[in-house]
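re: that chain from earlier
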Amino acid sequence: MRTLKFLFACATFATALPVLAAAPATVFIEQMTSPEVAAAIRGGKTTIIVPIGGTEQNGPHMALGKHNRRVEALSGKIAAALGNALVAPVIAYVPEGALAPPTGHMRYPGTITVPAGAYRQILEAAARSFKLHGFHDIVFLGDHGDYQGDNRTVATALSREWAATPVRVHAIREYYDVSSTWFSQQLAARGFTEAEIGRHAGLPDTALTLALAPDQVRGDLMRSAPPSGSGVIGDPRRATAELGQIGVDAIVAQTVAAIQKATRRP
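^ sequence. v structure.
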């Protein structure tokens, strides 16, 4: 009887212990411990992708976190394809317009803006942190158009400052150009109209989000054309995840090629 009580007590104690997670098979550093990141760098993962999104209105049918969710998912795919890269946490606070008076997306509730100077300081501080820890190539991927010039400015200045070191910073414009230009051209070639494609939260924007983060899209609010003043420039009603996947595949392939070209050493 004593033996049975002892075995029961041991079993009860064992089930009460917390389940400890093994080291995750991930490219996202915020899911890793500090020693795991250090080991990955020693193992050759010396490229760090810095995904940059933004928190902005996307009309009544798409959530404010669209850019953040998309750039995180795409950065993970790109890092996996590269094989030598990790992914930093998403930068979600970016320039979105003026506050007083509000301009651009700041006219719509939920949008968050920061001054361009503060944004550049964030990029610079992040890059300096990654250099300190042993990364050789720091890659900015921006899902939004307005700060592409800021990304390039910071990348150029730091690469010039670090010219005598093996560390370089890269602003990969191809990532954004595929989604904003190439994908729209492909949709036009398939018969979609310019009015549908639009420039913000329209057909391509919504299709990409359906392919990568469908929970960000309110399908029941896509049945009617977006009303005037809604913040949508375009018409998302015919957007599908299947169309979005065309853009996803191209963004990953062309961005991987651009990063490989940019990081190639003589």
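The beta strands are 47-52, 85-87, 137-142, 168-171.
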